[in-house]
Design a protein that fits this description.
Helix content: 25-40%
Oligomer: single chain
Largest sheet: 6 strands, mixed
Number of strands: 14
Strand order of the largest sheet: 6-7-8-3-9-10
CATH topology of the largest domain: Rossmann fold
CATH class of the largest domain: Alpha Beta
Low-confidence stretches: 309-367
Bound molecules: adenosine-5'-diphosphate, magnesium ion
Length: 367
């Protein structure tokens, strides 16, 4: 189990992580969801002992990361945002090195390396230099490094960033299968990814935890609907016909003066309110032209919770742009390209369904 208590990280005056507390139970996949700059990487770097906290405690599988970092670290596999690969090593050499760092018993190193390579399907590149591998293969080597020694907990920082759609699907499948044997914590700024692979979602914004729930419950919380009704009846007639409907949280009536009344109603709860609306209008003797439902989505609640428009631009991504393998979103943002351009599509196959806050923000920034 992992427990984060009152974790705070300040960079000078800037608070990157702000009194964050949460618990992570065994054998589940947790998703850290939040726009760029929310504090996900900072939190993960502290949880894995790579960065000191300003305040607060992190208990990893029974060990305090500050007091017993060696023991705590041995129970975690970490895939940082930029995996620490050594380009001049072969995959096998690098993983052997990683196994030794993890203190895998000498006799077991060879087998642990082979096992990790098998799990990531990288046996065929075992003796190639890392510098000659594609981005997707490099990411797999980073993953292999994380799972070596079979740690209880895997912490993965944006594990699908920069991969192509096919690789993203493979990595998501891999995460799901790793989740059957390990506790997995991954971060992402892509809502669809987190709701697809995670059992529990922690939504972060400006260094704070703003929601912690299952994707299903988050969707339920956002289950309200808004309904637009147009009717040839008079406004007061429509109003009194709809008076007394259950679960209404707001109502607004406008008469266009040309014989059409438009009513906007908001509802809480999950069901479809149209049946009741139509019954009420009929009972009240009001005809209607249309009754349309617009359902709130998980995207809406995410956007509302993270207040994304004001979230700041993350400097860390500048590095990515200079990197030879800069991601599609970073490079298209630099040129001020449309976030829906094909380049963007390529790194995020779910871009239509998902909220890609990072790309939107960067484009805003480059204007
Ligand atoms: P995320 O991973 O959610 O995008 P980060 O944890 O990388 O967020 O960053 C959180 C905040 O801390 C951002 O405002 C970022 O600019 C800032 N930050 C991160 N690293 C540093 C650093 N080394 N020095 C100063 N500020 C930093
Ligand atoms: Mg990050």
């Amino acid at each position: 189990m992992i427990e984060v208590r009152n974790l705070t990280k300040k960079y000078g005056d800037h608070i990157a992580v702000d009194h964050l507390s949460f618990k992570v139970d065994e054998g589940q996949v947790y998703g850290f969801l939040g726009p760029n700059g929310a504090g996900k990487s900072t939190t993960m770097n502290i949880m894995t002992g790579y960065l000191a906290a300003t305040e607060g405690d992190v208990i990893i599988n029974g060990y305090n990361i500050l007091e017993e970092p060696e023991k705590a670290k041995r129970t975690i596999g970490y895939l940082p945002e930029i995996p620490p690969l050594y380009p001049d090593m072969t995959v096998r050499e690098y993983l052997t090195f990683a196994a030794e760092l993890k203190k895998v018993p000498r006799k077991e190193v060879k087998l642990a390396v082979v096992h990790a390579m098998q799990e990531l399907s990288i046996m065929d590149v075992a003796d190639r230099l890392i510098r000659h591998l594609s981005k997707g293969y490099k990411q797999r080597v980073g993953f292999a490094q994380a799972i070596i020694g079979d740690p209880e907990t895997l912490i993965l920082d944006e594990p699908t960033v920069g991969l192509d759609p096919k690789q993203i699907i493979e990595i998501r499948e891999l995460i799901k299968s790793l989740g059957r044997r390990h506790t997995v914590i991954l971060s992402s700024h892509i809502l669809a990814e987190v709701s697809e692979v995670c059992d529990t979602v922690l939504i972060m914004s400006r260094g704070r935890l703003v929601a912690l729930d299952t994707p299903e419950n988050l969707a339920k919380k956002s289950a309200g609907a808004s309904v637009t009704i147009t009717s040839p009846a008079r406004a007061d007639e429509v109003r009194s016909a709809l008076d007394g409907l259950a679960n209404v949280t707001g109502a607004d009536f406008t008469d266009d003066g040309a014989g059409t009344v438009t009513a906007h109603l908001t509802f809480e709860g999950e069901g479809d309110p149209r049946k009741d609306i139509i019954a009420a209008l009929t009972a009240g003797g009001c005809a209607y032209y249309s009754v349309d439902v617009q359902r709130a989505s998980l995207e809406d609640i995410f956007l509302e919770l993270t207040d994304s428009e004001d979230e700041e631009y993350d400097d860390a991504d500048d590095d990515l742009i200079e990197d030879e393998e800069s991601s599609g979103s970073a490079s298209s943002a630099k040129s001020g390209a449309d976030p829906t351009s094909s380049e963007q599509e390529e790194i995020n196959p779910d871009s239509e369904k998902s909220v890609n806050i990072e790309a939107k923000e960067e484009v805003e920034d480059s204007k």
